[in-house]
Amino acid sequence: MCGRYVIKTPPDLMRATFGYAEQPNFPPRYNIAPTQPIPAVRIDNGQRSFMLLRWGFIPSWVKDPRGLGLLINARAESVLDKPAYRNAMRRRRCLIPADGFYEWKQDGARRRPFFAAASRLIAFAGLWEVWMGPNGEEMETACIITTTANRTLRPLHDRMPAVIAPEAFDLWLDCAHVDAETAAALLVPAPEGTFEAYEVSTEVNRAANDSPALIEPLAPGAAEAAPPQPVARAKPKKDDGQASLF
Questions:
Q1: 225 torsion bin: left (phi>0), alpha (psi -120 to 50), beta (else)
Q2: For position 107, which CATH number holds?
Q3: Residues 192-205: pLDDT tens digits?
Q4: pTM listed for this prediction
Q5: Which domain range does residue 50 map to?
Q6: How many helices (H) and strands (E) does the chain have?
Q7: Using H for helix, E for strand and C for coil, what is the string for 109-127?
């Protein structure tokens, strides 16, 4: 799964990697959390476009999102069939740039945070949707698609974000000409070597903390010396296996 992640690539390099025309000045973020705005790349008028979307998917048919759990992850195995994601998988696929993500490993009563550092700027597979409120207000939201973990990350968790390779960017984004079933074939575990995972400080547990120090490897022995810090999370209304809440 993916409940926190990192973007530290400079805007110019990110723009060159994804090939959009906009020139956003998105700052480095070392602890991106749900409900925050996240950068995404999608097709707009036939061209790749940079957009900021709220992380926390709201299906268009939801009348009151206050009663909806935070849908930040969608399972690759069910995006073609689940009513919440089915239409977005057909018509509103996007790429979510990232330099890595955090995962927590259960160790007895402790949950130890690890950073899965990407070997390069990567793209998570994402879906986006437009929700319109009763007073005409609009909100564009997104979620990250997860798949089974590869061998590198399996010791931490059985899920990981689905990563779209650069040569498949067009295939994933082109909803007008590439059907959902074909695009879904891209939602496989990332190749070994895509990520290097190592333990980091529990300072990452607090979403308010956001600095390069969060992705520094934990010093030997520090895990035993530091008191555990709870990971801030909200309780879902209903857990269908697709919502990861922090």
A1: alpha
A2: 3.90.1680.10
A3: 999 999 999 999 99
A4: 0.89
A5: 5-225
A6: 5, 10
A7: CEEEEEEEEEEEEEEEEEE
What are the C-alpha distances in Å from 209 to residues 93, 102, 133, 147, 205?
A: 30, 14, 32, 28, 8
> For 94-106, how does the pLDDT look when each residue is reduced to its tens digit (9 = 90+)?
999 999 999 999 8
Cα 64 from chain centre: 24
Q: How many structural domains comprise the chain?
A: 1
Q: Encoding tokens for residue 66?
A: 């206050």
Is residue 180 a contact partner of residue 139, using CB atoms and an 8 Å limit?
no
Let me know if residue 233 belongs to a domain: no
Please give the Cα distance from 89 to 91 (Å, whole number): 6
Class of residue 143 by CB neighbours under 10 A (exposed 0-12, middle 13-18, buried 19+): buried
Active site residues: 2, 103
Q: Is residue 209 part of a domain?
A: yes
**Is the distance from CB of 31 to CB of 204 less than 8 angstroms?**
yes
Q: Write b or e for each residue in 225-246: b if 16 or more Cβ atoms lie within 10 A of its Cβ, otherwise e.
A: eeeebebeeeeeeeeeebbbbb
* CA–CA gap between residue 96 and residue 126 (Å, rounded): 6
Closest CA to 1 of 34, 24, 29: 34
As given in the structure block, the two tokens for residue 121 are 């700027």
Q: Assign 138 to helix, strand or coil.
A: strand
